[in-house]
Specification:
There is one protein chain. With about 200 residues, this protein is an alpha+beta fold. It has a single domain (about 5-115, about 160-200), classed as Electron Transport, Fmn-binding Protein, Chain A (Pnp Oxidase, Chain A). It contains 5 helices and 8 strands. The chain has helices at about 15-25, 70-80, 105-115, 115-125, 135-150; strands spanning about 35-40, 45-55, 60-65, 80-85, 90-105, 160-175, 180-185, 195-200. It has a 6-stranded antiparallel β-barrel with strand order 1-2-3-6-5-4. β1 and β2 (about 45-55) form a beta hairpin. The longest helix has 15 residues, at about 15-25. Bound molecules: flavin mononucleotide. Flavin mononucleotide binds near residues 66 and 70.
Length: about 200
């Protein structure tokens, strides 16, 4: 077993991730929950973009997006993704690799409802990742949707969550002279037990 202590201590990597995220909420100037989400396209060409991590569940990470976006296409065809979150203020990162599935049930409805009305209407108006002729065209779409959907729009069928079930989670913290601390937690898909290893920086 590795010599984990302090910020790395504990038997549940999701609890450690939650604790680090809570610390970052107090130290980051904004978007402490931003993650760089990485996917691969049909040619194996990697892709990355920021999204907001909305939930750390008992055993998974959840974010929300448009199901017709480029990332959704890549997530749906590969069934796998990775992300990294980096906090400059804490000098720490968490890396996650895993299998993805959609969250398009009551949980997605509840999250959609929790968003501001303008964001809810924006989700309807944006054909995310597809060409747009002008900003004016987008605002016209928003006006059209606002008139159509009113003040209590349903969650669009093309918008919802993705859940990442990790097989690997790495916790990294800055150390003096680039001698950083790294602990990687690995397990097989569907297994409960993690194997934890300290890695060279
Ligand atoms: C800090 C930050 C947070 C973002 N959060 C989200 C998000 O939660 N969901 C989302 O769909 N796009 C989010 N975006 C926009 C994405 O980075 C991206 O532009 C968009 O999802 C389209 O990506 P795609 O064409 O690869 O699908 C965010 C961008 C930034 C910079």
């Amino acid at each position: 077993m590795s010599d984990r202590s302090g910020i790395f201590a504990g038997d549940d990597p999701f609890a450690i991730a939650r604790a680090w995220l809570a610390e970052a909420e107090n130290s980051e100037i904004n978007d402490h929950n931003a993650i760089a989400l990485s996917t691969v396209d049909a040619d194996g060409l990697p892709n990355a973009r920021m999204v907001l991590l909305k939930e750390i569940e008992a055993a998974a990470f959840v974010f929300y997006t448009n199901y017709e976006s480029a990332k959704a296409r890549e997530l749906d065809s590969a069934g796998k993704a990775a992300f990294v979150m980096h906090w400059k203020s804490l000098r720490r990162q968490i890396r996650v690799r895993g299998h993805v599935s959609k969250e398009e049930g009551p949980q997605a409805d509840a999250y959609y409802k929790s968003r501001s009305l303008k964001s809810r209407l924006g989700a309807w108006a944006s054909r995310q990742s597809r060409p747009l002729s002008s900003r004016t065209a987008l605002m016209a779409e928003v006006a059209k949707i606002t008139a159509l959907k009113g003040t209590n729009p349903d969650r669009p069928p093309f918008w919802g969550g993705y859940r990442i079930d990790p097989v690997e989670i790495e916790f990294w913290a800055d150390g003096d002279f680039r001698l950083h601390d790294r602990f990687v937690w690995r397990r097989q898909l569907g297994q409960q037990e993690w194997v934890v290893e300290r890695l060279n920086p």
